[in-house]
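G., the chain you wanted modeled:
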Amino acid sequence: MSTPNATSADAQIILQLYDFRRESEMRKARNFVFNFWPETAQDIISIFMNFGSQENAWLRQVGTYWEMAASLVNRGTLSPDLFFDSNGEMFFVYAKFQPFLKELRDAFQEPAMFSNVDKLTQSTPEARERMQRMLTRQAEWRSKMKKSTAAA
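Predicted structure as tokens:
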């Protein structure tokens, strides 16, 4: 999926995506997702079904942000190389949902849920490797958090 050279238009889009991530409500949403460690698909479904809650809004905001950004790359609007250089957060966020994706898609009867991010994280050998590293790391973190909670 590599492009020969990123353009100045690509750079502008990258900077705009970064600015969107700095917006105050988006910062709150990102903070919520960073600290949200679902153990089951039901943990995610419960938030999605809690209509009107701040957590519901934040989860949807972060999820749709990364779906939108990935769509720009998948459709050729934005250089994949430039995007991957500056957007590791997408892998971190997606790794929280990916283990439960089949159950989530079934529960919501939405086969396209996270499809743009899924496609992008599988688009190159490097992206697949990066995704696998993040899944492994998060599994290790979950294990450490469980042990820490059990010891407390």
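The chain has nine helices and no strands.

Shout if anything looks off.
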